[in-house]
Amino acid sequence: xxxxxxxxxxxxxxxxxxxxxxxxxxxxxxxxxxxxxxxxxxxxxxxxxxxxxxxxxxxxxxxxxxxxxxxxxxxxxxxxxxxxxxxxxxxxxxxxxxxxxxxxxxxxxxxxxxxxxxxxxxxxxxxxxxxxxxxxxxxxxxxxxxxxxxxxxxxxxxxxxxxxxxxxxxxxxxxxxxxxxxxxxxxxxxxxxxxxxxxxxxxxxxxxxxxxxxxxxxxxxxxxxxxxxxxxxxxxxxxxxxxxxxxxxxxxxxxxxxxxxxxxxxxxxxxxxxxxxxxxxxxxxxxxxxxxxxxxxxxxxxxxxxxxxxxxxxxxxxxxxxxxxxxxxxxxxxxxxxxxxxxxxxxxx
Length: 349
Fold this sequence. Notes:
The chain has helices spanning 3-14, 20-39, 52-55, 65-73, 86-95, 118-127, 141-144, 156-162, 174-184, 220-229, 243-248, 255-264, 276-285, 307-315, 325-340; strands at 42-47, 61-63, 79-83, 100-102, 133-136, 149-151, 168-171, 188-189, 205-206, 234-237, 251-252, 269-273, 290-291.
């Protein structure tokens, strides 16, 4: 496609959100990226949190991180460019070891993934011998390698219940763990680094104090303020939000689940409690819906991914993601165990 054709396509979707001068500049970048994509036999994955001009121009697949990695694995492409954060690109490499995986940013970390290490998991397993470990997909590969089974925000409850055991170590998201404990009726504890105490003798769900730096900032007050101004608003919250926020919302689900919810419901307006760019992307694809523009929280790590960096990742084959084979094999096993239970796999991220 030419720059003019690409600009016309982008303007049709984003013209009510993005200034014309910006769309023209981004259209030129999109053409260049798509040319490089063809030259390198690459597939580009766009997470729901990507900024709108990137999200609506160059990805071959868009959505939640795990499902994107699974789709990329099914292609015949040699290169995967993951427009997301590092743990997502690692998951793509776990599922596609024969492909080159590129992350269009030098760091693009994640506060939640960084909250726990493989050594932390090993210490927990030593402290609670024989207790199965469930690890959220939003973690690094070496952590996945130490776990028994992964979960996503969509299937966390199903994974926990599939283990059919009284006690479970659930890592690392504190709020997702509390939400799962509420849903399953399990008592939850958060052990300290001191020796095990008497109140840990009877435990059911053992959590960890990891948090997403975006979702932890949403409050019930945000919901109350929205409903005072717009009584008919439907509030959607990500399961990484605090439990009181999830309980006060009308719906809680993964990013793709929230996208589908907005598309499937006729409410006049919605409030989306997750990374702000996703609301922009939903609004672009649902011009008849009204999304309250009350969000001011953006993920600094997701925002490291730009169209310029995406172009350069292909142009210079830069920021290659590698996972040591022994870690990859063990991490893949924990993902495969999750997939084997047949529960929905749409993730947060």
